[in-house]
């Protein structure tokens, strides 16, 4: 199996003093240092970067070579799969290691977004939708369609969405790398107001993830290299599922792609939900997190809100979700998101998560999603030492 042996992570937010190259080199350099890996020993670099028209740096893979002179001439590849570009880069590096083509891989996810007006960011992200039918739709509008379909079938769950938003903002208070350190009362998240306007009914501002800059990085190695490392996190399962791109050809209440990916990952890992200590999932919108609860099998369809009521997904619960603050409060620099999730779970299962730490955590789930439940990546991470 492939192991994670080191990581790096910039703060997420409006980072006006860092361009894309600075983000890539900061996270990548930190990961190599944390792993204790010399740049000359890196066999390949994979960079997750959405680049949906948001920056001019359309060829960023070799920017990672600026980390150190010894990285010059190292193979470097940009990987893109919408908001799952980070996980896609990890899986590409894993495949190269398992194929025997390399022993040490550096994976970096990065995105620069805040320099653009919100409308231009929305336009760039909109390129991940099915252009023949969905061109011009923003992703808040796309996921509002999921929310309306869910509400039509299972009743109005606006209160549950507000609970998710408030939970994740509270969790972010313990994450120094999060974009927002501001707890939001459930009552504020539940009400439409001047400070919390409707974006696309029934989704309000507090139901939407953040526009962010940031980067995260991992060092992946083969089994024999991991044996000599001071820390190692086993990538026990890594499963990808892609669904049809048009939302018109899918049941918007089923989240079938995410459900399949998570089930496959747990099956490959030989684990059940009860064996997991935490999960970091893709809450691009609060309705997505609610539906992911059900896709995980934590609740029956339409019953995800009960997990908020009984505390299952909260800190101290049976399976806390998004202790980092999630995309909702930690931030969502899209190319970095999947890598960030893996970093945060790796920190948990090695006991290095500081104030976010789940006592005794050894196994965690990562679920990173591209588009409207189209590209689904589910990983199970296990701390070895």
Structural account:
The structure is a single chain. Strand 5 and strand 6 form a beta hairpin. Helix 2 packs across helix 13 and helix 6 packs across helix 10. The chain starts with a strand and ends with a strand. The strands form two sheets. A nine-stranded mixed beta sheet has the order 3-2-4-7-1-8-11-10-9. The protein is 34% helix and 18% strand. The model has no long low-confidence stretch (mean pLDDT 97). It is an alpha/beta fold and 385 residues long. The protein has 13 helices and eleven strands. It folds into two domains: 137 residues, Peroxisomal Thiolase, Chain A, domain 1 (3-Layer(aba) Sandwich), CATH 3.40.47.10; 223 residues, 3-Layer(aba) Sandwich (Peroxisomal Thiolase, Chain A, domain 1).
Entry summary:
This protein is of the alpha/beta class. The chain has two domains: 3-116 and 212-234, Peroxisomal Thiolase, Chain A, domain 1 (3-Layer(aba) Sandwich); 136-209 and 235-383, Peroxisomal Thiolase, Chain A, domain 1, CATH 3.40.47. 34% of the residues lie in helices and 18% in strands.
Keywords:
385 residues, alpha/beta, Peroxisomal Thiolase, Chain A, domain 1, 2 domains, 34% helix
Tally of alpha and pi helices: 13
CATH class of the largest domain: Alpha Beta
Question: How do the SSEs run, as a string of H and E?
Answer: EHEEHEHHHHHEEEHEHEHHHHEE
The CATH homologous superfamily name of the largest domain equals Thiolase/Chalcone synthase
| Unreliable sequence segments | none
What structural class should be given to the helix and strand makeup?
alpha/beta
Which term fits the overall shape? globular
Instruction: Predict the CATH topology of the largest domain.
Output: Peroxisomal Thiolase, Chain A, domain 1
The counted number of beta strands is 11
Largest sheet: 9 strands, mixed
pLDDT averaged residue by residue:
97
Query: Structurally, how many domains make up the residues?
Result: 2
Task: Report, as a whole number of angstroms, the end-to-end distance.
Answer: 15 Å
DSSP strand content: 15-25%
Helix content: 25-40%
């Amino acid at each position: 199996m492939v192991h994670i042996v080191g990581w790096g992570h910039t703060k997420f937010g409006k980072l006006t003093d860092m361009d894309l190259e600075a983000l890539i080199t900061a996270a990548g350099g930190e990961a190599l240092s944390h792993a204790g890996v010399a740049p000359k020993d890196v066999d390949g670099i994979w960079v997750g970067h959405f680049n949906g028209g948001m920056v001019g740096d359309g060829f960023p893979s070799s920017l990672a070579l600026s980390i150190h002179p010894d990285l010059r001439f190292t193979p470097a590849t940009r990987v893109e799969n919408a908001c799952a570009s980070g996980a896609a880069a990890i899986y590409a590096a894993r495949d190269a290691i398992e194929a025997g083509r390399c022993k040490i891989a550096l994976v970096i996810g990065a995105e620069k977004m805040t320099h653009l007006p919100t409308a231009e960011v929305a336009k760039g992200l909109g390129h991940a939708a099915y252009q023949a039918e969905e061109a011009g739709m923003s992703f808040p509008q796309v996921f509002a369609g999921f929310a309306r379909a869910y509400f039509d079938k299972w009743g109005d769950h606006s209160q549950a969405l507000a609970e998710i938003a408030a939970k994740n903002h509270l969790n972010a208070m313990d994450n120094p790398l999060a974009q927002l350190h501001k707890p939001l009362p459930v009552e504020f998240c539940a009400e439409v107001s001047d400070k919390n306007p409707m974006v696309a009914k029934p989704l309000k501002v507090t139901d939407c993830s953040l526009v962010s800059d940031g980067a995260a990085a991992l060092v992946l190695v083969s089994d024999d290299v991991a044996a000599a490392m001071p820390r190692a996190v086993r990538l026990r399962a890594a499963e990808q599922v892609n669904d049809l791109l048009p939302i018109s050809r899918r049941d918007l209440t089923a989240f079938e792609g995410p459900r399949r990916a998570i089930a496959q990952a747990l099956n490959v890992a030989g684990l059940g939900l009860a064996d997991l200590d935490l999960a970091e999932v893709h809450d691009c919108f609060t309705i997505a997190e609610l539906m992911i609860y059900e896709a995980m099998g934590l609740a029956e369809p339409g019953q995800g809100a009960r997990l908020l009521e009984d505390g299952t997904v909260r800190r101290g619960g049976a399976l806390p979700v998004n202790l980092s603050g999630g995309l909702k409060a930690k931030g969502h620099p899209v190319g970095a998101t999947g890598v960030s999730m893996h970093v945060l779970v790796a920190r948990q299962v090695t006991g290095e998560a500081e104030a976010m730490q789940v006592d005794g955590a050894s196994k965690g789930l990562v679920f990173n999603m591209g588009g409207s439940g189209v590209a689904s990546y589910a990983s199970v991470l296990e701390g070895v030492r």
